Every structure is written in C-alpha cells, then in structure tokens.
Amino acid sequence: MCTCFETAIRSIFSGLLLSCSSFFMVDANNTIEELIVLASPTSEYKYYAEVESDIFDFHVNFANQVSKYDRVIVLTDEDRADDYIESLGEESVLIMPMLDIWMRDFTLSNTRSPIMFRYTAAAQDNQAVADEVQAQFYDFAIAAGLRFEESDLLNDGGNIVDDYAGNLVVSTKFLDDNNLTETEAREILTSYSSINNIAFIEADEQGGLEHADGVVSFIDRNTLVINSYPEDKGYAEKLKADLKRGLPDVIIHEIPTPYDDSQIFDNRFGSACGLYTNALVTPNRIYLPQFGVPEDKTVLELIRSLSTKEVIPINSERICTMGGGVRCMSWQLRGKNAETLLERYF
C-alpha cells in the first residue's frame, strides 16, 4: 500500500512531493554499513536549555563510539556547529537544524525499506506542531534525494521495532491513533514489501508516548529481548502472549530492568533510565545503553551471550531522564539512501 501525504506536509511542500510510488532501498554490501544521524537542539528552541550540555556530551560520546564502526553525522545549527566540529570533525557535522532532537520519531521507519508515517502529536504540543517538525525533516529528505514510501497513517518511529527481516512490534497506540482494528492494521502494514509479521502489544505505561521501543528490542534475527516486570506479572505474561501470537517463531528473552523514574525532565514522558531495550541495533552491532548501575555489566554480558552481533556499551545516564535514549536519538540509513545523503552534503 502506498498512500500520499494528504496532510500539512503536502500543503507546505507540495512542489517537492514525489509521486506516490514505492521505492526500494538497496540492501546490499556497501562501503558504509549504516549511517547514524543525530540532531542537536537549536539555539532558538529553549525547551532543552537546561540539559543542552548533557545532550551535547551524549552526542559526542555516542558519535565517537559509533564512528569506530559506522558513519555518524550530527545535524545542527550555525550557533552549535563549531562546538560539534571541534569535538567530531567537519566530516561528522552538517548545518541542517531540526526542530526536535528525537530523530527516531519524525523521520523514516524501517531502515531496509523506508516509510514515512505521519508524526503524531504525542511528543509535541499539538498536531500542527508535530506536522511542522516533520515538514522540516521532509524538506531535508527531499532535498537530499532520499527515496521512501509515504503513509498518512499516524505513528512515531519509536513505536516501530523491527528485525530487518520482516518482523515488527508495534504498540496498540497505533490502532487507537488510526481508529483501526488489529486485523485492519495488520492487513495495511503487511501490504508493505518489508513487513511480514506483526505483534501488537499494550504499552507498559498508558498515556503519553506508549512506544514499543521502551518495552522490546530485536537483538538478532528472530531474537527478541523484553523488559522484566517482577511487580506486574500479569502484564509480563500478556506481553509475552501477544508477542508469541503475532510472531510465533521469535525467541523471547527477559532481561533485568532496573527502571528508575526518580528524576524526570518532563512529567509527560516519564524516564528511560534502566531500559536496555532502547538499544540501537544495526545489521552487525548493538549500541546498548548503560546507566551507571550494577545491572549494566550483567545485561551487557547477557546480550552478548544471546546475540551474534557485536555489542558496544553507550553511557546514557545523563539523557535517560528525558524519556529517551540511544535508539530514540538516532535515525538510521543504509544502502542507496545513505550514499545519496553523504554524496549530496559531503
């Protein structure tokens, strides 16, 4: 299925819209395995002012770790560019400001065959603001020559967790946002060439973002890790049952979850501290958040034992209070789209 963006994005960028057709991003061996894109706060947007140094430090540490294995760039504005260039080098910085830092949510879902869903208002003040955030990214994506499918279905990228092999986990917020039954949603989503099987799960916290990537993570093909819920065994059992119903061939492992909500930046979004499931997974690597707690080492060793991928620890304790982490901050590209973007700007 391919539907056109009959939203505010069309009105803002009607002259730039692609025709409503499907494009397949080549998933072959490339010189660049994966391109990871981050976005800094802008000088005009004061929401992150008191934590801006924490975000900067996280970006620099994360980028330095990623650049050992994959290509990484940071999108920023002119006021922030010199600091990022000094720390990361010109080859890792692009003056292309975004209106928010959580690149996972308003960009492209599904790295293998990208789809742009309409960004929901859950993380913004209202739908008009959400459309504005995504419209700025859309302008960038079109100017860069990226290829992707478009859908007017509402979804944040953090609510899609996939394994690069056609398996998908989505929270039932997707059903509520689009007024769909599970059967209807499954029929629509599996019509995309890159999606075969879907599990719909209840989020562990109702209200707010309700993203699946704070609950589950594919750490390998057909291998899924989930949070442990020792104080809510009923939810844990339902979660596993829903996953098995939608993804019967997937192996599920529970991992320790030292969730900590003692410090929260914005009460609307809770905390991501202790959620190892918010890991960034690439074809050959897992960038695993660490929180400065004893469980870090245990989970790191456990994930290494469960996955064939290389696992790289990423300190996330200074940003997890904002409700996101390693995966939430990152937009992933590969194949032709990664090459096209880098050729266009570097």
Structure description:
This protein has 346 residues and is α/β, with parallel strands linked by helices. The chain has one domain: 5-stranded Propeller (L-arginine/glycine Amidinotransferase, Chain A), CATH 3.75.10.10. 30% of the residues lie in helices and 20% in strands. The strands form 5 sheets. The chain has a 4-stranded mixed β-sheet with strand order 3-2-1-15. The protein is globular.
Write the layout of secondary structure elements.
Layout: H1 8-13, E1 35-39, H2 52-66, E2 71-76, H3 78-88, E3 93-95, H4 103-106, E4 115-118, H5 127-143, E5 149-154, E6 160-162, E7 167-171, H6 173-178, H7 182-189, E8 197-201, E9 216-220, E10 223-227, H8 233-246, E11 251-255, E12 280-281, E13 285-290, H9 295-306, E14 310-315, E15 331-333, H10 335-345
Parallel strand pairs: 1-2, 2-3, 4-5, 7-8, 10-11, 13-14
Antiparallel strand pairs: 1-15, 6-7, 9-10, 12-13
Straight-line distance between termini: 34 Å
The structure class reads alpha/beta
Give the low-pLDDT segments: 1-32
**Helical residue percent band:** 25-40%
Main features:
about 350 residues, alpha/beta, L-arginine/glycine Amidinotransferase, Chain A, 15 strands, globular
Short description:
With 346 residues, this protein is an alpha/beta fold.
